[in-house]
Every structure is written in C-alpha cells, then in structure tokens.
Amino acid sequence: MHCFRKITEDLYSVGGNDRRLELFENLFPLTRGVSYNSYLLLDEKTVLFDATDDAIGRQFLENVNAVLDGRPLDYLVVNHMEPDHCAMIEDLVLRYPDIKIIGNAKTFPMISQFFDFDLEGRTVTVKEGNTFSTGKHTLHFLMAPMVHWPEAMMTYDETDKVLFSADAFGIFGALSGNIFNDELDFEKDWLDEARRYYTNIVGKYGMQVQNVLKKAAGLDISVICPLHGPIWRTNLDYIIGKYDIWSRYEPEEKGVMIAYASMYGNTENMVEIFAANLADAGVKNIRIHNISKTHVSELISDSFKYSHIVLAAPTYNNGIYPLMDTYLEDMKALTLQNRTVAVLGNGTWAPQSTKLIAAKVSEMKNMRLLETSVTIKSAVKDSQREEIVSLARQIAEEVL
User: Alpha-carbon distance 209 to 203, whole Å?
Assistant: First the structure.
C-alpha cells in the first residue's frame, strides 16, 4: 500500500525507509536505518527527482503510481547516480516506457555502466545554468561535481523555491512519519548523525562543497529536499551554516576529544588522569572514545566537531596500535584540518607510539601538533603525573 506525504501544492515525497540495513555502503553502522528520498512533481509534465535503492523498490513504485493516479511519468531527473538512488531506474523505464531522463554529460555513461536498456531517444542532457519548463514550474540545474561523485548535480525549482540537493544535506536515520525538520527535535536527535554523514561521506570534498554553497547563496530557497533524511522547510540558515563550518574544516565547538586505545588498562588510566585534570582546569566539553569499541565513523565525526584532539595509544608490534592507525589514515583521507593535536603514548619494551602517531599527524594538512607529549613505560608513575597535568593545563588554557 502506498505511503507518501505532500511537500508543496504540486510536490510529493515518494521515497521510503530501510530499517533493516545495518551498514551504509556496507561500511558505516546504522543504528536507526536510513531513508531513501524521492520527489514527484505534478505539473503539465510529471517529473520524478531521483529514484531509490531497490531495498524499498516495491514501496517506492507503489508511491509513484499512487501519486500519478493514472497519469504517465514524463521525466526522471537524475541528480546522483549512486546505486542507493538509481537502482530503480530500469524498473521505471519498464513501467513508463515513454519516460525521458534528464541528466548531465557525466550521468548517462554511468547509467550505461549500471544498466543495459537503450538510452537512444530517451535522454535530455543539461549543463550548468540550463532551465527546463514543466508547465508552471521552471527548473534550473546546478552542477555539483565531487559532492560527492563527479556527476552530482542539484535541481532548483524557481516556482516553489525548492532545492533538490542530491546527497548534500543528507543524514543517516530512517524517518518516522515526521519528514520535515520542524516536526523534529533536530539538535537532540539528528545533528550527530548529520555530522557523521557529512564528515564520512562528503568530508573530503570541502572545497567543492564551498563552491556549491556559493552557488546556492544566489538562490531564493524555501525548501531543501535531500536524498537522505529530513526535508528542510524552516531555519535553513542553521543547516547551511553547519555545512559551511564543516566544509571549511573549522571546529564546530571549543572542546577536547580524546581517542584512546588500551590493551590492559594502563593507557586508559593515563587518559582518565588527563581528562580529570582538564575538568579540574574548568573544561566542560570533553568527549572520550575507546577506539576499540567506537566505530571510526564516529571518531571522524567528533574530530570534525572539536577544536582539540588528544590521541593516546600503546605501541603494538613496534608500530601504531592498528585501530589508531586506521583512524589516522581516515583523518588524512578526509582531509581534516585546523585542529590542535596532542599525543600520549605507551610501551613496555620499545615505546614508539608517541613518535609514530606524531609523525602521521605531521603529514596532515594544516594540523597543529603540540610539541609537548607524554610517553609512559607500561604504567603511569608518580614521577610522570606532573607531565600529564601540565599538558592538560596547556590544552585547557587554549580551550577556555
């Protein structure tokens, strides 16, 4: 049975939710599932903006059919060719054989890579600044390369002032009937997942996001329709502001994130002492992650959030503890910048972790590595407590 909601007088949300999926892209944990958003415009011509993943294919097709109510589907706009948004394209072509597909020059080669149906006579190729009339609605097309695929684009409906933003402004999490931001407690229930989605999926492409934000600044936008998560119809400056901060790699908050690994509890003990002294110095915004129990996507999310990062790990096989190494590689790959980093290390017979972690941080762009570090041998001793306290006070002074 169909299940859809109205967005504007002519526009409907026809996507759906997958609460069974455990790993987004078979990589990122989903504790609350994910939504696959699709939008159908009823004008003189009917236009569908993006499809969905085949996991919700039946629901999606029922929704489209119900909203059309006997009308043909004239056009499909493909803003993004990733399979979680394009998997149902061939099904749409089979159901609506006269459909035409609107995309850019990079869209159609990808369609041919994923599918075998004949595109001859079925394509409408658009480029930056082109417009397309569906009747009373006029669509504008904005190219958004590498946000976060090379073919990505956005579509703006100047009539209703709606921006179909592809994966930009997407968020992890299935929607529970309430599909609009003003129906939700966003900061409480959605902000962390919005940040985790952005930093891990789009985070590498901050410069490209900045370019798109500059384009969007020239538009009169009333509604943002992303391909995952809530639709924005109020307080747009809030989410756009978050994207601006994240894509400039500026800290969202003054605070300290401590990411540690500990095999037998001794490195953890050093971290606890360090955090207690931060608190004694007046720092309230402290977040501690045991990286052996925290998925790296959450570590990346908080790395983008906080101004100061403390990395603590024992030496492992004369190298960096493997999970810490993975985290550092992700930080580098996602081009995290403009953070202050301190290192705490440990080792029993060859304490190398402090030096090796510091070397990896030094390879990252625009990262400030504190010269002061602490290395313990096996366990914290009274003679080293002052080193830990001193470094904690130094960071506290900067944060406060």
Answer: 9
| Residue 88 backbone phi and psi in degrees, to 5 | -95, 10
Q: For residue 109, what pLDDT band results from cuts at 50, 70 and 90?
A: very high
The C-alpha atoms of residue 345 and residue 351 are separated, in whole angstroms, by 7
Tell me which DSSP letter residue 55 carries. G
CA distance 107 to 98: 19
Tokens of 183: 């129906």
Q: Cis peptide leading into 2, omega within 30 of 0? A: no
User: Could you tell me the two tokens for 43?
Assistant: 């004008």
Instruction: Characterize 16-40 residue by residue with b for buried, 16 or more Cβ atoms within 10 angstroms of its Cβ, and e for exposed.
Output: bbbeebeebeeebebeebbbbbbbb
Alpha-carbon gap, residue 216 to 210, rounded angstroms: 10
pLDDT of amino acid 192: 98
Take residue 386 and report the two structure tokens written for it: 């002052």
The pLDDT value recorded for residue 7 is: 98
Identity of residue 283: V
CA-closest candidate to residue 215, choices 147, 113, 126: 147
d(CA 289, CA 267): 13
Q: DSSP alpha helices (H): ranges in 87-205? A: 89-95, 107-114, 186-189, 191-197
Say how far apart CA 52 and CA 60 lie, in whole Å.
7
Whole-number average pLDDT of the chain: 97
Structure pTM? Answer: 0.96
